Amino acid sequence: MGFSPFPAGDGSPWPPQSFTTDSGIYSLVGVANNAIAMHMQDENNNNLLYVCTGAWNITDAPNGKATFTPSVADVTTGYLGKPGLYRIYPVVTLSTGPKSMDSQTIQVVSLP
């Protein structure tokens, strides 16, 4: 992943995101699109967590790549609609439980 600042309220699909862990690229082979959720923690509000409700589309499973399209709620009442500094990371739900991917910091800004 990697793009910041992000314009508040932008519901456009994101460019393909690479899923990585400390071990490297995380393969998404066998993972369903609906088994992925974007998590956002507000760095200026005690890391309060918001789980986005937007949709993921796996575009290159062996190389751990997927695109994210925010939902209307994500860009209106969620953190993608509120200027601030957030730690974002996808979480993949596996049969063994949730697996968090590497995070990045994103700044959501209000543009004229």
Description:
The structure is a single chain. The protein has 1 helix and 11 strands; from the N terminus they run E-E-E-E-E-E-E-E-H-E-E-E. The protein has 112 residues and is mainly beta. It has one domain (6-109): Sandwich (Immunoglobulin-like), CATH 2.60.40. A hairpin with a 4-residue loop joins strand 7 (55-60) and strand 8. The longest helix is centred in the middle third of the chain and has 5 residues, at 72-76. The radius of gyration is 13 Å and the shape is globular.
* Number of helical segments with 4 or more residues: 1
Mean pLDDT: 94
Q: For the CA atoms, what is the radius of gyration?
A: 13 Å
Largest sheet data: 6 strands, mixed
Helix content: under 10%
Choose one word for the global shape: globular
* Helix-strand sequence: EEEEEEEEHEEE
How would you classify the helix and strand content by structural class?
A: mainly beta
State the domain count. Answer: 1
CATH class: Mainly Beta
Q: Could you list the spans in which at least 5 consecutive residues all have pLDDT below 50?
A: none
Architecture, CATH level 2?
Sandwich
CATH topology: Immunoglobulin-like
Please summarize what this structure is.
With 112 residues, the protein is mainly β. The longest helix has 5 residues, at 72-76. The strands form three sheets. Strands 1, 5, 6, 9, 10 and 11 form a six-stranded mixed beta sheet that branches.
